[in-house]
Amino acid sequence: MSLLSWLLPRKKPVLSLEQHERLMRLPPATELGDTPMRTQRWVVVDLETSGLNLNRDQVLSIGAVVIEDGAIDFSQAFERTLLRPDNPLSPSMLLHELGPAAIAAGSDPADALLDFMAFVGDSPVLAFHAPFDQHMLTRALKDSLGYRLQHPFLDVAGMAPMLCPQVNQREAGLDQWINHFNLQVEDRHNASADALATAELALILFSRARTQGIDTPQALQQRLNQWQRRKQMHSF
After folding, report:
1. Is the distance from CB of 46 to CB of 63 less than 8 angstroms?
2. Could you give the CA distance from residue 98 to residue 95 in angstroms, rounded to a whole number?
3. Which of 25, 37, 155, 224 has fewest C-beta within 10 Å?
4. 3-state secondary structure at position 88
5. Other CB atoms within 10 A of residue 156 CB
6. 204 Cβ partners below 8 Å, 6+ apart?
7. C-alpha–C-alpha distance, residues 80 and 107, integer Å
8. Lowest mean pLDDT across 34-43, 87-96, 211-220
């Protein structure tokens, strides 16, 4: 990305009247509260992207499931491919199994993102390596909708070593934690499957949190923030 592109103002996305009305109906985000963790509705999300560059790469697909009443609610699931039929295939699309059929069924990014934010509602979001997903989703929402994402994101990749300090998995990826807890995952590198695996891992971690006296979403967020600050201090 050139310096000139940073200096030039971004063009506002052009939305249809229907899209604008849907955007205005989206509920505002709420902060994590002090109600029991079990009563919180969580949206567990996984993004498939064209690469790992935070400023250049694009969101290809979104998969999400819901944790509610202490369990995964399989009646609440989300999956969209953010591609138009004329998008060319790339190696990253093939890696994520986004072949011609998926591309042909792809949604306009603005419509897909509106669908997703309606699905999220005012719920907090969980993700494995959440800062990456949060950044990519924030940029996609701003570019396609002019929408400012303000929902709380909690990082399952940080929760796992924090709540399981006896496990030597501090820098482990999702696959390593899946194997450690013997989770049965049918597929990987697919947004919906990865979101489901992350949700299953999160439920185990929520149980560990309660045994450690962490009973509310707010307390979990505070403990995670403290743990991450200590980790950063020890890295210097």
Report:
1. yes
2. 7
3. 25
4. coil
5. 21
6. 181
7. 7
8. 87-96
Contact 178, 197 (CB under 8 A): yes
233: pLDDT confidence band, cut at 50, 70 and 90? confident
Location of structure tokens 């494995």: 128
Give the tens place of pLDDT for each residue, 140-167.
999 999 999 999 999 999 999 999 998 8
In order of their start, the domains of the chain are 29-234 (3.30.420.10)
How much is the pTM? 0.87
Average pLDDT for 83-89: 49
In this prediction, residue 96 carries a pLDDT of 47
Q: Two tokens at 63? A: 């998969």
Structure-block tokens of residue 86: 């004329």
Q: Residue 98 carries which side chain, given as an amino acid letter?
A: L
How far out from the chain centre does Cα 184 lie?
21
Structure tokens at 90: 């790339």
